[in-house]
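Thread: quick sanity check before group meeting

JM: Hey all, I'm pulling together slides for Thursday and realized we never actually wrote out the predicted structure for the chain we discussed last week. Dropping the sequence here so it's in one place. If anyone has concerns about the input, flag it before I start.
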Amino acid sequence: MSDPTTHALGHAHADLMGVKFESFDRGREEITLRFHAPDAFITPRGSVQGGLVAGFLDEVMGWAHVWATDQAEAPLNLEISMSLLKPVLAGPLVGKGRVVRRGRKVIFLEGELFDEAGNLLARSTSTALPTPRPVAK
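JM (edit): ok, ran it. Output follows.
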């Protein structure tokens, strides 16, 4: 099984986020990805724009489901909820995403975003539809 960075090659969004695979825990259905928030994501307030924080969380939750299904499925979001707990600064970030519950018609996902020191910066949940994984073009 290959890592997400292999599948994300050529996808500009993954390149912008600096996505790097770290690990997948099959028992917990939890993936850990590393990101790099570029200076271009920073607002005049000095932190990453909120919608872009949601993008990091969406990425890590989605890859959790992809890996949990042995790369056969990808989630199609119906709803994402996010809580920003601390400012997300430019630089390295660690994301953890997990499958909470997977049914035939609906899946529930969670994501967390940390700084390199392990401080929790943001968390999210998603309700999504399981769909066949699109083939990269």
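AS: nice. The radius of gyration is 14 Å. The first helix runs from residue 4 to 8.
JM: adding both to the slides.
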